[in-house]
Amino acid sequence: MYPKINKKVYERTLEDYREMAWGDARCNWCMNQWGWNVKSSKYNEICPEFRYTRFFGYSAMGKFHIIRALIEGDFDYTDSEKLLEICYFCTSCGACEMNCLRLNEKEPLKAAEALKARLIELGIAPLPAHKELLKSIKNYDNPWLQPRSRRRDWAKELDVPAFSKDACEYLFFAGCTPAFDPLLQHEIVNTMRVLKRAGVTVGIFGEQEICCGSPAIRLGDRQTFFDLVRRNIELFKNAGVKKIITHCAGCHHVLKYDFPEVPDMPAYDIEILHVSQVLADLVRKGTVTFTKKVPMTVTWHDPCHIGRHCGIYEEPRDILRAIPGIKLIEMERIKDQAWCCGAGAGVRTAFPELSFKIASERIEEAKETGAEAIATCCPYCEQSLSDPLKRNREKLKLYDLTDIMLMAL
Amino acid sequence: MAKKDIRNNDRHQQILQAFQAAVGPENVKDNPATVNAYYGDWLPPKLLGMSVPPEFVVLPNGTLETQAVIKICNRYKVPFIPVGSNQWSLTGSPNRQGTVIIDCKRMGKIHEIDEKNMYAVIEPLVTLAQLQAEAYKRGLYIGSPEASATASAIAGHCFQGMWGVGYRLGVAYRNILGIEWVLPNGEILRTGSFSLDAQNGFWGEGPGPDLRGMLRGYAGAMGGFGMVTKMAVKLHPYPGPKTWPVRGTIPNQISELPEDRFKWYIIKYDSLEGAINFMYEIGKAEIAGVVQKWPTVYYIWWWANSNEQYWTEWQKRTFQDNVKNAVGVCLWGFTSPKQLEYEKRVLEDIIKETGGKPIKQEVFDLWVPRTANNWIRDTHGSRMMRPSGTFLALRLQTDTLKYAVDHVRQGYEWVEKFSPPILDCDGPDWIGGYDFGHFGFGETDFPVEKRAEDIGDLMNKLLAMTKEDVQNGLENGIGPFLGGPYHQMAAPVFNYEHLLKGIKKAIDPNFVSNPPHNIDPNA
Fold first, then answer.
1. Which CATH architecture has domain B6-103?
2. Alpha carbon distance B346, B360 (integer Å)
3. Alpha carbon of B166 to those of A210, A364, B171: distances in Å?
4. How confident is the model over B487-508, as a mean pLDDT?
5. Which of B12, B118, B305, B486 has its CA at a distance of 20 to 30 angstroms from the CA of residue B57?
6. Within 13 Å of residue B429, how many CA atoms lie on the same side as its CB?
């Protein structure tokens, strides 16, 4: 049995993954859907990176072999012109780890992310497109080169209070991408509207909010991430935050599961909830009831960072099922075996054509269900899935979960 | 000191350019990161000194590109290894410098599924899970051997295919109807149905020459006979649903087939002989779709959702005390629910007559919904790797069910002798049958610590014991999975040396197709 790595994830070095890498099982489950789930030949594959490259190195299994070779000195980090591409084509969707962990108790995604961290430490990475993101995070506390003063603009038309521990049960962590991108602001605007109608007392940090660090850690920049984590925790503690609601899947994953993995983390006791969890609970309790009919067939796209990485599969589906008129139909690859949108870990930024291919495949899969709309709950998924919809002038509509909820309230 | 980069070599550049011209520059890689991903099989790298990275990885698309690549390998006399899915491969990674990996990852088409004549024409990357999914939609099925949902269906058919449904369908290689095959010398051979019509896979047998038998074997040719680029395989009528029934997310999944068509039994006997007698009687009655005698360790390997659960349950002896010498039987109502009702009555009579007893209901309920259907459609098989990091198999044989009993008993002794590093596995005796039990197989699988020092030493000892047995005229062992080394020792003893060497010399004059597999003609 492989020795468990008894270290926090971000205390681990690449060498800590030696045993896992050395003992690769060559079982292919990092590239293929779980056997019982395969419903067709067309949608069998699960690793977006491998799907569009076809060489083993671009799969988790291949990366284990590359890591073994690097650790054992069979080749050097600077010897291969393709090493950076192999590492940064990965969207960190976690499909490989979902299957490998369950079959072999190995963590190929964490190992691949440790390899990215090593490349950054050695000054070989990041890629030029990613350097801009990381520089922006350091300078502006967001990856999009936007001034801090505009971070609250999305809430201008809303009556949203600044967070205070006495007046607000929850802090709403808006996230950089929906806060700054006008095309995505509807996601958090509608989230606030729905939460307000549901009677949830929630406040925001506004200009004080800073990046959660997701782009940094997914690119392997641990130091930037650690710094953001400590600053975020300080902000939360100082404000007396006890519960946080997120909308962005990337923020949710990082706040819930990556923050505690940082070395020497100061102690904190904060509950992290995704908006779909809070609202599904209120729907179940009858606090939120849908009064308007929304006659539409919808298929749900599981964002990797709330789905596979956090296990939130049923809550958004429960909400959709509770809306009168909505008919929920499923794609072939769903839940733990869902296909990624192609945006994650800086892939859309650095490799837009690869991201486009991955997203197009998801749209194709959605269209084959016969649904009129695809719904999701992640700004990156929305951005990425909207690319092929726009370019190909598709009839399929794309909604955020809260858009649909608002139609029904 | 910087390592010498082989890529600066003139000969390397010539070969690279030739491959690029054949398949397009984007489909050839020689950079260290990409080639090192093909280093090593599922046993620990460097075990028995077998692993080096390849010099090139080439991804042809289709028969003609594959032919062009293989001709280049012959022109430059460089060894090549054809790679399918590479799932659990033991001979799919290079053991010689300068090797070319010919990877089929661009060849994943199902060309045709002929529902009426019940066959599929497939390319090498099509996995058994994909083929099964498409077959179910059409009311047809094909099996998947344990731990092989992600394996190439073509590679699976070149192998005997120890699939759960083999009891009904026979060995996998008998389900091959047609082959399009690039020989090691670069010639294209179409055989079986394809010898008459390259698209028609209806009927594998004659008229005319049929060379399918050359490729088929106990464990295939291990890449030693070139590369199959297209195959027609037989499909069979299936009474199950068009989509595989599964509930829950992994690892907590349940799969239950319709009760009016499928029914599982697990029947326990006092001895292994009693269990095998039961299997014979079922075969005589020509009922059931799956009949298997699994070792205790299989029950828990497939069932446990985690290592922690594996070892907790193992220590509680849930399976050791309840399923020892038990036989799993799945009755299928192939034609109708009435058939299932009939078969239930027949089986219950056989159970009574042979003195079998159903295993405890709570163990049955614990195991069957989560696990049993893997023998119709595999998904959990790779869990064999989990408790210790790998498993080894020895005393594999195909003969009769009765012979399998003797053979796995010998396997117990070997396991006992080398425990540790072999882990506790309670007499690992897997016995199954093909063709209603007319043909049987046995295998001794066991978990073993995947550490170089342990496993390397163990493998060498097991090889020495195999060699000794072979010299004594006793065929068995871990050998077949090692291809060349096994045939090298067994072929002279069992008098197939001239045949195998003759074939190899005729089709692989430059000895470039995954040497030393299937046999070294000059040794």
1. 2-Layer Sandwich (3.30)
2. 21
3. 60, 37, 6
4. 90
5. B486
6. 29
Instruction: Please tell me whether residues A111 and A158 are part of one structural domain.
Output: no
Q: Does A102 touch chain B (CB under 8 A)?
A: yes
Interface contact B379-A41, CB threshold 8 A: no
**CATH number of the domain encompassing residue A317:** 3.40.50.11810
Check A56 against B53: CB less than 8 A apart.
no
Assigned CATH class of B110-237? alpha beta
Query: How much is the pLDDT for B48?
Result: 56
| Omega prior to B94 cis, within 30 of 0 | no
Per-residue pLDDT, B384 = 87
The closest CB to that of B45, out of A22, A41, A82, belongs to A22
Answer yes or no: are the C-beta atoms of B305 and B313 closer than 8 Å.
Answer: no
Contacts of B129 in chain A (CB under 8 A): 32-33, 35, 38, 44
Cis status of the peptide bond prior to B258, with omega within 30 of 0: no
**Cβ of B251 and A1 within 8 Å?**
no
Q: What is the DSSP string of B268-285?
A: E-SSHHHHHHHHHHHHHH
B119 close to B194: Cβ distance less than 8 angstroms = no
What residues of chain A, 16 to 55, have a C-beta less than 8 Å from chain B?
22-29, 31-41, 44, 54-55
Distance (Å) from the alpha carbon of A33 to chain B's nearest alpha carbon? 9
The pair phi, psi for residue B39, each rounded to 5°, is -85, 125
Domain boundary among the residues A278, A310, A338 is at: A278
Identify the DSSP state of A162: B
Stretch A10-38: mean pLDDT, rounded? 90
Amino acid, single-letter form, for residue A115:
L
pLDDT on residue B1: 42
Domain ranges for chain B, please list them: 6-103, 110-237, 262-376, 389-449+451-482, 483-523
The C-alpha atoms of residue B13 and residue B20 are separated, in whole angstroms, by 10
Among A210-214, A253-257, B302-306, B327-331, where is mean pLDDT lowest? B302-306
Residue B321 and residue B329: Cα distance in Å, rounded? 19
DSSP structure string for A194-223: HHHHTT--EEB-GGG----SHHHHHHT-HH
* CB contact (8 A) between residue A23 and residue B246: no
CATH, range B262-376: 3.30.70
CA separation for the pair A386, A376 (Å, rounded): 11
A341 and A404 within one domain = yes
CATH number of B389-449+451-482: 3.30.70
Same fold, B262-376 and B389-449+451-482: yes
Tokens of B308: 């922690």
C-beta atoms of A37 and B40 within 8 A: no
Best A20, A56, A104, A312 member to test B by mutation, with max B CBs in 10 Å, is: A56
Taking the C-alpha atoms of residue A54 and residue A41, their distance in angstroms, rounded to an integer, is 16
What tokens were used for B23?
Answer: 């398949």
Indicate the range of A381-395, B121-135, B223-237, B485-499 predicted with least confidence: B485-499
